[in-house]
Amino acid sequence: MHFSKQFILHLGLFFLFISCNSKTQRQENFGGISATDSRNKVIHLEQEAQRVVALFEPAVDHIYMLQAGNVLVGIPEQVYLNTSGYEFLSGLDDKIKNKEIATPSFSGRAISAESVLQLNPDLVILYEADSETINQLEGLGLNVYTVSSKNKEAIYLELKGLATLIGKSKRAEELIQYTENELNKINKAPKSDKKVYYAWSKGRIFSTSGKGSLIDAAIEAAGAQNACPLEMEATNISAETIYEWNPDLIILWNSKPEDVYSLKELQALPAVKQKQVYDFSPVFYYDPHTIKFMLFAKQLREWCEPQNTTAENDVKKDLKTLYGL
């Protein structure tokens, strides 16, 4: 039987396609796990990660909510330095209490690539904005999963992705369902007409977050309005601008009400005169970069409408559920 060279070539390509397709199916079905990160990049692991370096504090927090603290071999130095978080996590893990988990970072988010490599991680979790570090670690052959925590949807998707990579998908679904149920309780109450001004941490009263930001989403989840109308993640403003916006409440992150009350330029502001300045304390309980934005929303709702809220503001109960205590 005579076959043309063209026919033989096509036949070979056909069998090559079948072989490759079969191999791809075997990889999908039997060759590990995959999750898409905040860059829309698919991260593939041959098996569930057993050694994780999480260099974004909210990711460390989520791993403990997923009840997977045992996989952590590296965390940010700030976990040990931030008092409220350290105290809480110390009660969950003696390795945190005794500061036994390595900290391949220094001076905030500065990271030692060599120190990370020495930990031999299966997976490294980084904040999406740390592009230089991401490129460096991926260039060393490490699996890097990035997170953005930019809004509720992103927080849910990133929690699910992280959970997939460490074998905790069921737990992630439980956490998200609980969070949604609690948010629905807030939504049952009428929307608040209160305008809320958010001030940044460490006394930066004239720095705030505008429309479309993570804080804006948390304020909206509380049924209130962000006093800042600017569509910016972060912006610096003047005292005159705050008077123009005239917020009903001022809320603080890692600052104290006295930081506002002591400012002469704000003493005539109605919210200040009426003592409507509140601080989230301890801040670890209300981190809006995690699913605890629900606790942020609950607390803010109570400050806005103390007589008109259907969400039970029982932080300890919520924390017990979120951490599986």
TrEMBL record:
It holds the Pfam family Peripla_BP_2. It comes from the Bacteria. InterPro entries: ABC_Transporter_SBP (IPR050902), ABC_transptr_periplasmic_BD (IPR002491). Gene3D superfamilies: Nitrogenase molybdenum iron protein domain. Residues 51-308 form the Fe/B12 periplasmic-binding domain. This is Hemin-binding periplasmic protein hmuT. It comes from Candidatus Ornithobacterium hominis.
